């Protein structure tokens, strides 16, 4: 039989907030660390891309108990990544992935579309998360070295395939920029 807390008396038709210990317990249930945050531009329509990265991260890191992290947390069962949150942004062109390993740590940005030049391959995101959260964790096929531009998705202006598997410099032909280089919806509708 479980015991429940009695309802808090209401003041002028509003319920009082629960005691801070209950809030802290609820916070530990709903949000847990290590945590990944994906901030994306809603006007660029990058929510689907953000949810895809979220699914990839959870499928890789959120499916098995991590004995190393569990042993450092008073034996409470933990996963390698315990929370992946999506944060919509109204800042034009935003697509940033950050990691917070412990509650009082600072956020570490592992990918920023504007600074890193496009969207990362999911393999690169997973490797960067692993290197922060659990360095040395073996990830089998994800540990193989990639021969392509450090995992960044390429645009046709920077490289073109030669058919031999290695990228070669592209011929300089003027063309519009791709979505990995510039958010056309944002620049046309928001900024001018």
From TrEMBL:
Biased composition regions of type Low complexity, renumbered to the chain: 10-21, 153-173
Keyword entries, A-Z: Redox-active center
Database matches in Pfam families: Rdx
Region (Disordered) residue spans: 1-21, 153-174
Source organism (scientific name): Eeniella nana (Yeast)
Transmembrane spans: none
Name of the protein in question: Uncharacterized protein
InterPro entries: Selenoprotein_Rdx-typ (IPR011893), Thioredoxin-like_sf (IPR036249)
Record carries keyword Repressor: no
């Amino acid at each position: 039989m479980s015991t429940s807390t009695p309802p808090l008396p209401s003041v002028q038709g509003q319920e009082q907030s629960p005691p801070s210990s209950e809030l802290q317990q609820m916070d530990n249930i709903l949000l847990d660390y290590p945590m990944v945050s994906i901030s994306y531009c809603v006007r660029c329509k990058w929510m689907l891309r953000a949810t895809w990265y979220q699914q990839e991260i959870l499928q890789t890191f959120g499916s098995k108990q991590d004995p190393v992290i569990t042993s450092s947390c008073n034996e409470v069962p933990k996963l390698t990544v315990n929370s992946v949150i999506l944060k919509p942004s109204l800042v034009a062109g935003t697509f940033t992935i950050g990691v917070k390993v412990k509650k009082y740590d600072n956020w570490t940005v592992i990918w920023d579309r504007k600074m890193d030049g496009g969207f990362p391959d999911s393999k690169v995101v997973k490797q960067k998360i692993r290197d922060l959260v659990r360095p040395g964790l073996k990830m089998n096929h994800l540990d193989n070295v990639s021969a392509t531009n450090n995992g960044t998705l390429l645009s046709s202006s920077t490289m073109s395939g030669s058919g031999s598997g290695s990228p070669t410099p592209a011929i300089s032909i003027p063309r519009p920029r791709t979505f990995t280089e510039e958010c056309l919806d944002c620049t046309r509708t928001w900024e001018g």
